[in-house]
């Protein structure tokens, strides 16, 4: 299978991408998803095949979603569990008054 795909990035959610067949564009994407996704900015067009490697997505899952529902959503990567978030009082302890 070969699909000419347009990829859009979300202006609202960094790291969130929307893959759609180029000929269909964003017409097939449900309105609820577009509301969550926000303003779509065209990032690139790619020819997707089963042999192609994608950096963060399983190509077979992307192709399956494009064929079955007409779009694929790439969610932002999860924050690493080992990153410790310090409370504000510790972050500002040495700040001048």
From TrEMBL:
Task: State the InterPro entries in the record.
Answer: YcgL-like_sf, YcgL_dom
Annotated YcgL domain ranges read 3-87
Residue spans crossing the bilayer: none
In terms of superkingdom, the source organism counts as Bacteria
Q: Which Pfam families match?
A: YcgL (PF05166)
- Record-given protein name: YcgL domain-containing protein SAMN05216271_0709
Lineage runs: Bacteria, Pseudomonadati, Pseudomonadota, Gammaproteobacteria, Pseudomonadales
């Amino acid at each position: 299978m070969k699909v000419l795909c347009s990829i859009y990035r979300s202006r609202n959610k960094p790291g969130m991408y929307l893959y759609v067949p180029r000929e269909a564009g964003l017409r097939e994407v449900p309105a609820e998803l577009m509301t969550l996704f926000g303003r779509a900015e065209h990032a690139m067009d790619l020819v997707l095949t089963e042999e192609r490697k994608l950096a963060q997505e399983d190509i077979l899952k992307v192709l399956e979603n494009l064929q079955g529902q007409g779009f694929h959503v790439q969610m932002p990567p999860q924050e690493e569990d080992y990153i410790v978030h310090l409370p504000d009082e510790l972050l500002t302890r040495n700040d001048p008054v």
